[in-house]
Amino acid sequence: MKEYIYDDTFEGLLTAIFYAYSCRESCIITKSKDYIPSFFNEILNISIEYDKFDRVYKSIIKKLNRKVLTNIYYLYLCGISDSSSISLKYLKLCYKYGTNINLAKNNDIIILVDKYTRKVTSEAHNFNGFVRFKEIAPLSFYAPIEPDHNILPLILNHFTKRFSDQNFIIHDLKRELAIIYNKKTAIITEFKKEDAKILNSADGKFETLWKTFYKSVNIEERKNLRLRSRCMPKRYWSHLTEFK
Q1: Of the residues 55, 90, 123, the one at which a domain ends
Q2: Angle between helices 66-77 and 50-63 (to 10 degrees)
Q3: Percent of residues, the chain, with pLDDT higher than 70
Q4: Contacts of 238 (CB under 8 A, 6+ apart)
Q5: Distance between CA atoms of 124 and 148, rounded to whole angstroms?
Q6: What's the CA gap between 66 and 62, in Å, rounded?
Q7: Phi, psi at 186, each rounded to 5°
Q8: Is residue 93 over pLDDT 70?
Q9: CA 19 → CA 51, 56, 73, 164, 205, distances in Å?
Q10: Domain boundary among 105, 123, 141
């Protein structure tokens, strides 16, 4: 079986799809960070080829539609290891049967596409409310997060609009990526855990204020721990100021 390894970028994924699409034997596509060595697979390392990326990108829009492209992008952002291979299988279905295949909710691939994209979009929506900032300098804030999926591209617009007059960093510790915003522009860039250590040395006054606010609005008699756990999964609690 052939295994196409790409560099964890969306451009790399579409380049890998370009080569894997015509593969007549069984094949899979894997992000480099998810690669597990195997004696049984023929490994093909894929570098970004922008002409190949462009051909696949334009073909999806022209022959299919933007909804399919969006689904492929969400699958790319998905943190589940087989999502890249699902992208290939999904595209083959769409090219073979047309975009109406998305209505075939009993198809195994469509079921997985719906499941994975829903996981990504739901988590992005949740983190619009789960991000907790600490003040590291006047009007400058830092927030560490550890989402299951690569949601930074999906939450960027929300936070730049909401905090347009403040500098901030939202740091995905799992992927060592961060949104860095300077009141004018926002970028997503590599940001190592070690680089954040100096930011974590802030005095914590902002966090103390948040805890005080949280405690003041909390009504003890209406506390519902079961509901809280359902609406705010425990795997996110380590970076929620009110639970520290």
Answers
A1: 123
A2: 130
A3: 82
A4: 146
A5: 10
A6: 9
A7: -125, 140
A8: yes
A9: 12, 10, 18, 42, 53
A10: 123
Q: Is a pLDDT exceeding 60 seen at residue 211?
A: no
Amino acid at 132: R
Rounded to two decimals, the pTM is 0.84
Residues whose CB falls within 8 Å of the CB of residue 130, separated by 6 or more in sequence, listed in order: 145, 232, 236, 239, 240
Alpha-carbon separation of residue 144 from 135, 152, 166 (angstroms): 12, 12, 17
Q: Round to whole Å and give the CA distance between 40 and 3.
A: 10
Distance CA 181, CA 187 (A): 7
CB 172 within 8 A of CB 150: yes
CA distance 115 to 183: 36
Instruction: Map tokens 């519902």 to a residue.
Output: 224
Query: What's the structural domain count of the chain?
Result: 2
In this predicted structure, the answer to whether residue 210 has a pLDDT above a threshold of 70 is: no
> Which region among 56-60, 96-100, 228-232 has the lowest average model confidence (pLDDT)?
228-232
Give me the domain span that covers residue 65: 2-123
User: Domain check: are 152 and 237 in the same one?
Assistant: yes
Q: Which amino acid is at 172?
A: D
Residue 213 CB coordination number (10 Å)? 12
